[in-house]
Amino acid sequence: MKNNPSDNDYINRNVMEVLVAEEIERQIVRLPSNIKKFVNPIEVATYALNRLPALYASSQQGFNKQKIKGRSEYSVKITQEVRKGFAAIQQDLLRTSTPLTADAEHDIDRDIKEAKAALQELADYLPKKDLTWKNIVRLVKPLLAEMQEQDQAEANARKVRSRSTNMWDDSVYKK
Fold first, then answer.
1. Do residue 11 and residue 90 come from a single domain?
2. Is there a contact between 19 and 77 (Cβ–Cβ < 8 Å)?
3. What's the total number of domains in the chain?
4. What's the number of CA atoms in the CB half-sphere (13 Å) around residue 115?
5. Does the global pTM surpass 0.85?
6. Among 99, 121, 153, which residue terminates a domain?
7. 18-27: per-residue pLDDT in tens?
8. Which residues form the domain of 63?
9. Domain final residue pick, 99, 130, 155
10. 86 near 31, Cβ under 8 Å?
11. Cβ–Cβ under 8 Å, residues 79 and 22
């Protein structure tokens, strides 16, 4: 299995999320305090981000370039969409929703890491080390079938041994 552990540490980020968060912070300050307590910034961000282009980066240099691009090309659009997001969520203050939590995403990440580790551990015991999720059945099934045949052969040998006895070895009837 070809899996470089350091590759798992790299991430990509949508720079637009940062720009929208900054704009939400600027606009939320201007809201009356009685309205602020009903505003969920995540809902505003979600509204705005669904209407803005993604600006992904996977390096610090790319992040900085995308941030400059986002501010120069989309600052007006970001401001407008965040403003619309505040208006949209204020229209129905009594609306309830079940928020997504980071725990669910963390659980998925943890499960993926555990699955990768289990696959790697299994690959260490197999003759062919290029084990992947796509070829696991093809590589492991013949080995399991062979083991099952060996177990059946051993069980049959035990049955034969248990039927025979050495009582006749010391017998007077032995020729």
1. yes
2. no
3. 2
4. 9
5. no
6. 99
7. 999 999 999 9
8. 5-99
9. 99
10. yes
11. no
